[in-house]
Amino acid sequence: MAVIGFAYIFLRNLFAVVMLSGMFSLTAAVLYVVMDAVDVAFTEAAVGAGIATVLGLATLGLIGVVNEKPSKRGFIGPFLVVLITGAVLINATLDMPDYGDPDAPIHHHVAPRYIEESGREVGVPNIVTSVLASYRGYDTLGEVTVIFTAACGVLVLLGRSRRRRPEGRMSGQDEGDRRTVAGDGEAAE
Amino acid sequence: MKQKAVLRVSSKLLMPPIMLFALYVQFHGDFGPGGGFQAGVIFAAAFILYALLFGVAQARRVAPGGVIRATLAGGLLLYAGTGVAGLLLGGNYLNYSVLAHDQVHGQHLGILLIEFGVGMTVASAMITIFFIFAGRGRSEIGETGEMGEMGERGE
What we know:
The complex is a heterodimer of chains A (189) and B (155).
Chain A: H1 2-10, H2 14-34, H3 38-63, H4 76-93, H5 111-121, H6 127-135, H7 137-167, H8 172-188
Helix pairs in contact in A: 1-2, 2-3, 5-6, 6-7, 7-8
Chain B: H1 5-27, H2 36-54, H3 56-62, H4 65-88, H5 103-143, H6 146-154
């Protein structure tokens, strides 16, 4: 993953960068499987490696730029910012409990209750599902709302101009169609 | 890409299993890894594959914008509505235990419904975003004249 990360920075060909981001997600998914987080790995493989790559390629096709121009600005300032932020983050991890430590606070808050009671209270064999959908239903509702809002944003920002363009040559019926679409978008917003 | 027979035939073979797998992931999420999010993305992948091969215009005829927008909002409404149903039946918001005669059945029903809502919203969101991204370039090329004419005929 580190190798892919460095290749990311130094490559100027955006097509290769999109492909690398897909590979990065795929290796991340493998890492999640190794850590027994199958649900997360599933999502990462589907969204990160699948949809994100396709969307990246579609964007490349849209903007028609394949090679990124090398930046003329110096890299010392951003490099220092990254270095300091990284150092602070690493410093913060020193206070965290060891990986897999059974005494870590995260294993003592609500997790034991979920693991012990889920079978009786929810009766769903996959505890991840029961936590996501039932115990943490609000969070998932929020996530779905975020996705809904994202799609609405794309519809409002990009969907409308796409409709307006060909309308000039077409009949009035299309115009009415477009107006209802625009109305829908605003209502959804 | 319409003339590539191998791609066309193999993707046609792949599409039904992809959709079936999405439904499996959707409804088997209670028992194994998976759930609405993953299923929605996989379901959308089938449409995206179709759009990549046969063009966005053709794919729009399979999945019209109005239907996609309806499922986009409908999924979220199904989720929120399940919560309201719990509220009306005397429980807390998003408490599924009151949805059926006993707690475990109610939870099963609630999870099934909200996961289906999640799947609907995620799938239609992905399809919408992809159609717009991929379709936008097309219509703009279509404006620049000759090349666009060819592009339109290609679809």
